[in-house]
Specification:
Chain lengths: 520, 259
């Protein structure tokens, strides 16, 4: 078996367990809420309109956004509960995923139940009353059994939707089959991406077929079939959940944003903590909007962020300061305002940078952003989903008077290939990316220092701020990772060497040990 | 008033749907053990009349009494469980077997399992079907005539004294219809039922009923025995209705005379 496939299989119990737990819980709650609501709305057209309208609106919200919206909401609720009841709850992972997916599951169940019940001929309903049934008896003895095929079709649709959408719960910290997809996309591990998609599809199909079996049993009035389907579902759940339940919770949880460098650094931290005899686990692929709040709330204990991101995104500063000053000021602000401990910089910067193909830049005579301004109106530029909305872009644009012919947004992985192939002329890339050397790209100089410094920094949650064991384990990483080493490690994990993030992290550690600490 | 009090009585009953008047100040008595046919065209208000009896609908004004009691003061669900109702079309529940359909009202009344089973077999035989063959069939596996026999059996299941029948045999072929009419008339007598049967077919009414009420545009225009209606109906519309079967009979007689 190829090593990537073996790696993928080894993670299956964990990922599938998380996926099954979150999707089946959401589906069960969704059905438990939707069915009574649909029954109640049957003779109340106004309620029906509101319900179906609301469910449809929910459906139009992209899955990822819906999931992400629940995190801040729950964070607020958790803080409130902490104040009122003295006990909070984790707003990350399971809870927001279940809530969002529950909402997601409701439309097909509601709509099909209402449609199925409305499709019952009035003569049948009248006959039910005529033989002496109450409205309730008519509903449960006649109308629901007759509408069952339509209701079950809705439940099956919901099951497939929820199981598919559950892959999106990865960025809010719920382990799911989406971990394969998000990690795979970032590290260009297509085996992972396909494995994650296939696993989610197979899981959805199995659940769908078991529901179909129950439906057939109910329609043909064969208890055996219903029981077999129910038993099958129970077995699937048990099998999916068993490994997850037996897994001991790690003491230290390391968060990662969804890109290669973060996976490598999280692996490195995990390896260092384990080497120090501490139990550690990673929570992969958290959205950048979620991860800082997660650290502050103590849902994760450690992660790597970047000074420029914290400066503008969290501290809401506008001006730019030199690298060392920004680092010091950020550290002081985090400790003072949030109780978060910025342990130190790792030694390299992962800043935004405008990149061009070296030959292309030379042909145009462009060395810096200032040179670029004259050519920009004939050129196209691509950036990640954030970049053109970030203050850096505004700063760069105004500082150099840049106006491009075309601006495109794409997945960072595809951006590099696009500039290398000439699809776009320039990209807003990252200085620590391993492909800069590989693809012969050049970083355009920023003489006006419009782009702020992006020092990689280790952040520790308030509740771990004075944890000596943790700090001792992290200490050897501070100021020890050079830009070249990080680029190389990123390249190994994402592009060239077919290495897993853990292998790239191990290589990075060997580099750190080999080099003497750089005097700063 | 002669002898016993009427089993069902309408006292000046009006039923409106919005501005439309479906029944207009109707007064009518149905006597104990009588089979009363209500004859009228589509939309004349005859089905409304029937549904007022077991409170599938309520009157706008006036009073409907069953066994002397104002139905508005009774519990509608309990009332319906003690009145048999045979539906236009069929009205069997398609997801239930013949036996389950027949057992429904006894089940709602909380009868014991053994009593229900015995009653189901008894009823299937009563409507001249073979219990062993039909018990576990679904309605979709029955012919129209068989289905309506099951419909009658279901209506009789909880041993009601009153039967309401809404054009029960309208959709059946003439031979089946004739057989069912005769069979039902026999049941009506042996079980001592009080029956109100709705039909648009005057011939059917003449053959099955003790008395016929003719309804037109929400008003009762005549109530009398078949014989009396045949001989001296005062109302023009009633005479027209009676003329149809009479003309048919004359033409048939003409055929036999020629043969």
């Amino acid at each position: 078996m190829p090593p990537e496939l073996a790696d993928a299989f080894s993670r299956l119990p964990d990922y599938l367990g998380g996926h099954a737990a979150v999707s089946v819980t959401a589906l069960a709650i969704g059905i438990a809420i939707s069915l009574p609501l649909a029954f109640a709305s049957l003779r109340r057209p106004a309620l029906r309109g509101v319900l179906l309208g609301a469910a449809s609106v929910v459906q139009t919200i992209p899955g990822l956004a819906l999931l992400a919206l629940f995190y801040p909401l729950l964070l607020g609720l958790a803080a409130l509960s902490e104040r009122i009841f003295g006990a909070g709850f984790s707003a990350l992972g399971f809870l927001p995923s279940v809530l969002a997916l529950t909402l997601y599951s409701m439309l097909p169940v509601l709509r099909n139940t209402v449609a199925g019940l409305q499709g019952i001929p009035p003569a049948i309903r009248e006959a039910a009353l005529g033989v002496g049934m109450t409205r309730r008896q008519s509903l449960f003895m006649v109308e629901i059994p007759l509408a069952l095929p339509v209701i079950m079709a809705g439940i099956r649709t919901a099951a497939i939707w929820v199981i598919g959408a559950a892959t999106l719960s990865t960025p809010i910290g719920q382990t799911s089959l989406g971990n394969y997809i998000f990690t795979g996309l970032q590290t260009q591990n297509w085996v992972f991406v396909l494995f994650g998609c296939a696993a989610a599809a197979i899981f959805a199909l199995i659940v769908d077929q078991l529901l179909a079996l129950m439906e057939a049993g109910l329609a043909r009035r064969r208890r055996g079939l219903v029981a077999t389907g129910a038993l099958g579902l129970a077995l699937v759940m048990a099998a999916a959940l068993a490994p997850g339940l037996s897994r001991p919770a790690a003491t230290y949880v390391i968060g990662t944003k969804p890109f290669t460098e973060q996976y490598v650094l999280a692996s490195l931290i995990e390896q260092r903590l384990r080497a120090a005899g501490l139990s550690a686990a990673t929570r992969d692929g958290l959205g950048s909007a979620v991860i800082f709040d997660a650290l502050r709330a103590g849902d994760i204990d450690v992660y790597v962020d970047y000074t420029g991101t914290l400066w503008t995104g969290v501290m809401k500063r506008t001006g730019i300061k030199p690298r060392a000053e920004m680092l010091a000021e950020t550290k002081a602000w985090l400790a003072r305002e949030q109780g978060i401990d910025l342990v130190g910089g790792l030694g390299f910067e992962n800043a935004y940078a405008i990149l061009m193909r070296r030959d292309h830049a030379e042909a145009l005579g462009v060395r810096s952003l200032a040179d670029l301004a004259a050519h920009a109106p004939q050129l196209s530029i691509a950036g990640d989903y954030e970049f053109f909305g970030r203050p850096e872009w505004n700063a760069v644009r105004t500082a150099y008077g840049l106006t491009f012919r075309e601006q495109r947004q794409m997945q960072p992985e595809f951006m590099y290939a696009a500039v290398a192939s000439g699809e776009v002329d320039a990209i807003a890339g990252y200085t620590s990316d391993g492909r800069i050397a590989e693809l012969k790209l050049t970083v355009l100089a920023d003489p006006k220092q419009a782009i702020p410094p992006y020092d990689a920094v280790l952040l520790v949650s308030p509740r771990r701020a004075t944890d000596a064991a943790l700090h001792t384990a992290l200490k050897p990483l501070i100021d020890r990772i050079s830009l070249a080493a990080m680029q190389q490690a990123n390249w190994r994990a994402a592009n060239g060497a077919n290495a897993s993030p853990a292998q790239a992290a191990a290589w990075l550690w060997s580099e750190i040990k080999r080099e003497k600490p750089a005097p700063r | 008033m002669t002898g016993t009090a009427p089993t069902i009585s309408f006292e000046n009953v009006t039923r409106r749907y919005g501005d439309a008047v479906a029944l207009d100040r109707v007064s009518l008595d149905v006597r104990d053990r009588e089979c009363l046919a209500v004859v009228g065209a589509s939309g004349s208000g005859k089905t409304t009349l029937l549904r007022l009896i077991n409170r599938l609908i309520d009157p706008s004004t006036g009073t409907v009494r069953v066994n002397g009691e104002d139905v508005q003061r009774t519990d509608a669900v309990a009332l319906r469980r003690h009145i048999g109702y045979v539906f236009q079309g069929v009205g069997l529940f398609p997801h239930m077997t013949v036996a389950e359909n027949i057992a429904i009202t006894p089940r709602l009344l909380g009868w014991e399992r053994g009593r229900i089973d015995a009653r189901v077999d008894e009823l299937i035989a009563l409507v001249r079907l073979d219990a062993a063959r039909y018990r576990n069939r679904l309605p979709s596996e029955l012919s129209g005539g068989e289905a309506q026999r099951v419909g009658i059996a279901r209506a009789l299941a909880a041993e009601p004294r009153i039967m309401l029948m809404d054009e029960p045999f309208g959709a059946l072929d003439p031979l089946t219809r004739d057989a069912l009419n005769e069979d039902f008339r026999r049941l009506h007598e042996t079980l001592g039922l009080t029956t109100v049967i709705i039909t648009h077919d005057m011939l059917e009414a003449l053959l099955i009923a003790d008395r016929i009420a003719v309804i037109r545009a929400g008003r009762i225009v005549a109530t009398d025995t078949p014989r009396a209606l045949m001989t001296d109906a005062a109302d023009e519309y009633v005479r027209e209705l009676i003329a149809v079967p009479r003309r048919h009979a004359q033409r048939l007689n003409a055929f036999t005379g020629r043969a």
